[in-house]
Specification:
Strand order of the largest sheet: 1-7-6-2-5-4-3
Strand content: 25-35%
Radius of gyration: 15 Å
Number of helices: 5
CATH superfamily: P-loop containing nucleotide triphosphate hydrolases
CATH topology: Rossmann fold
Largest sheet: 7 strands, mixed
Number of domains: 1
Shape: globular
Mean pLDDT: 89
Order of helices and strands: EHEHEEHHEHEE
Low-confidence stretches: none
Oligomer: single chain
CATH class: Alpha Beta
CATH architecture: 3-Layer(aba) Sandwich
Distance between the termini: 11 Å
Length: about 160
């Protein structure tokens, strides 16, 4: 366990179907219970971060195509989640900071309008590219989702931590 974080889930991922099942479990058991959350996704290139976010957004009722925000840096979505006897609309933002040149680009581009909006839950790829101050500007319950390669041919591992 990482100091100051609570380990919530650790799962091996052998294929897309396993990733889909883990995403559903993460959404149902953790994210759906929070009105507002931020998930910082850590892991190297090609480990499956965007695929996992796409699946999590599908679990949240996002019906539109979810694409990588590598060039746009942020994509925004609306989801309709079924809670007991009613539908609830939720806003989501999917950030990818891989292409940010400087830590201050986060503030210069006005991303705090999205990050501190209590009506928007966020998924953040490459959070290490922004400053600690920028990471703390996100509102909601905070999670870290670590993804790793190299656990055998085609195998990956996902670890969900609560900050």
């Amino acid at each position: 366990m990482v100091f100051g974080m609570k380990e919530l889930l650790v799962r091996p991922l052998a294929n897309h179907q396993a990733t889909d099942r883990v995403a559903q479990k993460i959404y149902d058991e953790f994210l759906s219970k929070d009105e507002n959350f931020v998930v910082f996704l850590e892991g190297g290139l090609g480990v499956g971060k965007t695929y996992l976010v796409r699946t999590l957004l599908g679990c949240a009722g996002v019906s539109e195509d979810v694409s990588s925000p590598t060039y746009a840096i942020v994509n925004e979505y609306e989801g309709k989640e079924r809670l007991k006897d009613r539908e609830v609309e939720r806003g989501f933002a999917h950030f990818d900071f891989y292409r940010l040149e400087e830590e201050n680009d986060f503030f210069a581009r006005g991303f705090t309008e999205i990050s501190d909006d209590v009506n928007v839950s966020c998924f953040v790829e490459w959070p290490e590219k922004i400053s600690e101050v920028a990471r703390k500007s996100f509102s909601g319950k905070m999670y870290v989702l670590k993804m790793e390669h190299g656990l055998g041919v085609g195998m990956r591992k996902v670890t969900l931590l609560e900050v």
